[in-house]
Backbone:
């Protein structure tokens, strides 16, 4: 019965050996479905799947599963994100079943930003399980058809399981081991944190390839075009675990008034060109934050269109 | 030890606003060690309350008493001749104290004077830090003597989140990332491979999640 359900498009693209291209979209801060549909309309046919964030930065938004289900209705494949901050193992497992029932086929497993960042810092944090255990849990539900407590699932889910990797958090030497652990836990694909420090990322990928990790899972490189010098400075200073080299900020500043965004896009495209050739990289995860309407242009200029159909 | 902070004076004054005569009870246990609820602090609180109420023109009569421990019926019993004479009794012990007193003397009203914060130790005089979450199933042997349950903001059991930067936690530059310490210790000892082995989901039944806990040691029960 399970085999009759259509699988993940992203999975098919990657298994066929195509260079994947995924996008991202934050659900509305409200029930504004029209706004969500408007944002994803720019991504339709342009990306293989769209990550739907789960109360990102711990700010309350429409639930990621509901927004993901709207994408399914709209004919855009979602990559449903789930964080461990807001749900215990009961809610996690029921949501995993729920999203599969709604036609969602990709799931990204994350720890989640601490609630102190968000708009309800008074909240109790859950963290019943961590992101590593979440990956293993979804793997078990899919492959063994069992809940965490070993009870049988009546029609288990079948999801393409993703995890995040931040090559730039500290300590650097350890980050590739964490990637290895996530793959061992059962991740099918990895989407990395936004990459700006290319030297450091090359070093990270060399280690990953030396350990053979790229043969065990698909690694998608994270790209976020810089819109302004202010954004670059903010990311450099205020976003934990983000590595923005001073040389990039200087380059953006040098572009001159009114031309910084274009310079940011140029840098992103240069990155994508390099990632296409980089050993171990299977695709791009483009996180164009509140810039969905620019994604078609970036995709076109990066030479990733038309998207393959498998 | 159990660490606590004294409540703001205004909150305590509000608790006793209808009282004319109170008793403040200190504890010689943990709260004496962390300088919040021993005989010295009982004296200070008594003076502050008396001065504040005198200013208001409604003097407050305050008696003081500090017992060995408020978490032990044997010592709580020492208060039996005192309680009953007061409009309220303020406990300066951790959250256990006012409850043991309430249970022993149901006719008397008891108020807490401290906020009980965590199980920890003194880093230096005047600075205490959390070390244990009392989860009921100690796992620190997996983490070279460092506890991620108590000391990671997300209680992560399988490595740091992406928010760990420069040895600090993503929630604040004032908070050390315990996972940074664990990882560096493993690196120094050449045992990073330990962290590829996944620790399964924790059984939280032994923690507060399993409901209020009780410890019974048959050999001691008479």
Residues:
């Amino acid at each position: 019965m399970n085999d009759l359900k259509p699988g993940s498009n992203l999975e098919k693209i990657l298994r066929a050996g195509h260079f994947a291209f995924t996008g991202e979209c934050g659900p509305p801060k409200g029930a504004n479905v029209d706004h969500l549909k408007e944002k994803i309309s720019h991504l339709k046919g342009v990306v293989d799947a769209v990550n739907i964030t789960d109360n990102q930065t711990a700010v309350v938004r429409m639930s990621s599963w509901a927004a993901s289900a709207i994408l399914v209705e709209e004919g855009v494949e979602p990559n449903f994100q789930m964080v461990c901050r807001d749900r215990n193992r009961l809610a996690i497992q029921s949501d995993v079943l729920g999203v599969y029932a709604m036609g969602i086929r990709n799931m990204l497993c994350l720890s989640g930003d601490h609630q102190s960042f968000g708009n309800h810092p008074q909240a109790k944090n859950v963290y019943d399980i961590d992101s590593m255990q979440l990956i293993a849990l979804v793997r078990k539900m899919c492959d063994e058809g069992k809940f965490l407590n070993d009870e049988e699932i009546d029609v288990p889910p079948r999801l393409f399981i993703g995890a995040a990797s931040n090559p730039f958090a500290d300590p650097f030497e350890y980050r590739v081991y964490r990637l290895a652990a996530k793959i061992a836990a059962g991740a099918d694909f990895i989407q990395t944190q936004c990459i700006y420090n290319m030297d450091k990322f090359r070093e990270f990928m060399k280690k990953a390839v030396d350990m053979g990790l790229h043969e065990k899972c698909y690694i998608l490189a994270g790209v976020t075009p810089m819109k302004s010098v202010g954004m670059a400075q903010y990311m450099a200073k205020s976003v934990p675990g983000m590595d923005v080299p001073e040389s990039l900020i200087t380059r953006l500043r040098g572009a001159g008034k009114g031309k910084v965004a274009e310079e940011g896009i140029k840098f992103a495209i240069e990155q994508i060109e390099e990632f296409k050739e980089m050993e171990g990289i299977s695709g791009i995860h483009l996180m164009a934050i509140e810039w969905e309407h620019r994604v078609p242009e970036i995709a076109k200029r990066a030479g990733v269109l038309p998207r393959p159909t498998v | 030890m159990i660490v606590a902070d004294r409540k703001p004076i205004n909150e305590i004054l509000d608790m006793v606003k209808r009282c004319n005569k109170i008793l403040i009870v200190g504890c010689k246990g943990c709260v004496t060690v962390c300088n919040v609820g021993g005989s010295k602090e009982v004296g200070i609180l008594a003076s502050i309350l008396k001065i504040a109420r005198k200013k208001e023109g409604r003097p407050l009569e305050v008696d003081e008493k500090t017992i060995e421990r408020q978490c032990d019926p044997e010592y709580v019993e020492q208060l039996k001749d005192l309680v009953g004479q007061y409009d309220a009794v303020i406990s300066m012990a951790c959250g256990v104290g006012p409850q043991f007193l309430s249970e022993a003397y149901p006719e008397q009203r008891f108020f807490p004077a401290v906020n009980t914060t965590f199980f920890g130790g003194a880093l230096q005089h005047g600075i205490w830090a959390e070390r244990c979450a009392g989860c009921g199933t100690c796992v620190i042997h997996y983490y070279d003597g460092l506890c991620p349950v108590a000391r990671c903001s997300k209680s992560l059991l399988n490595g740091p989140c992406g928010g760990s930067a420069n040895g600090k936690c993503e929630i604040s530059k004032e908070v050390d990332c315990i996972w940074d310490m664990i990882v560096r210790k493993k690196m120094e000892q050449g045992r990073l491979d330990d962290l590829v082995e996944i620790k399964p989901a924790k059984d939280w039944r032994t923690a507060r999640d399993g409901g209020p806990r009780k410890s019974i040691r048959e050999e001691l029960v008479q």
In short: The interface with chain A takes residues 153-168, 170-172, 177, 180, 183-184, 186-187, 192-193, 195-202, 204 of chain B (CB under 8 Å). The mean pLDDT of chain B is 96.
